[in-house]
Amino acid sequence: MKTTNKTDAAGSSPTVLPADLTALFANARQLDAAAVRELEAAARALDHDPAFVADYLKGIAVEDILQALEETGISKNELAGRLGKTRQYVSNVLNENARVNFTIDTLAQFSVALGRQLCIRILPKTQQMHVFRTLPVTVEPSPQFETQPIADTFTTGNFVNIPSSSFQMKEEYELSRIPA
Predict the structure, then answer these.
(1) SS (H, E, C) 134-146
(2) Does 21 reside within a domain?
(3) For residues 178 and 128, is the Cβ–Cβ distance under 8 A?
(4) pLDDT tens digits along 56-113
């Protein structure tokens, strides 16, 4: 795939774009300030539309379930068995177009069946949560560092460091303030 380097307006490090995207953007019309403001207003309106937010979050949940299936090697049939449901039920939940209205209970059942942790937070608009995935590593404990396992923890404004010797695959969480 042929790529093109493009430096952003601030002159920072170049962004590498595939040649087909470069060609697509070359033919795109420039947006004037009014069109940009209109798009920004439309995006803000979607953030205040509960149906849109629900569909968006369902999509994220489905992606997370599919990723967990892939990472663990669990088939949809095996997942259905673990849930005590049919394969058709699992397929319907994972089909974003099926419009299945699944609940927090459903998400909890899926997360437990997959050996995963379900995390649901309602945050002020001035905060956002970041999830940092780490790769599995093997580290020999060092006497100069404490290596006792630390549970997943949420903190506000502080990064949570989980020693790599205490996990196979962990996620680290950070809540950060969004500038007003």
Answers:
(1) CCCCCCCCCCCCC
(2) no
(3) yes
(4) 899 899 999 999 999 999 999 999 999 999 999 999 999 877 777 788 999 999 999 9
Contact (CB, 8 A) for 175 and 123: yes
- Helix/strand/coil percent split, the chain, to 5: 45, 15, 45
Using CA atoms, how far apart are residues 57 and 112, in angstroms rounded to an integer?
19
- pTM equals 0.58
**Cβ neighbours around 78 below 10 Å, total:** 15
The total of structural domains in the chain comes to 2
Q: Are residues 98 and 137 part of one domain?
A: no
Instruction: In whole angstroms, give the CA distance from residue 82 to residue 93.
Output: 15
Answer whether 65's CB lies under 8 Å from 57's CB.
no
- Opening angle at CA 116, ends 115 and 122, nearest 5: 150
**Cα 69-59-78 angle, rounded to 5 deg:** 25
User: Is residue 4 in some structural domain?
Assistant: no
Q: What residues form DSSP beta bridges with 127?
A: 177
| Full DSSP string of 70-83 | HHHT--HHHHHHHH
Q: Are 80 and 92 in contact, with CB atoms under 8 Å apart? A: no
Tell me phi and psi for residue 63, to 5 degrees: -60, -40
The two three-digit tokens of residue 129, written as one number: 């949560």
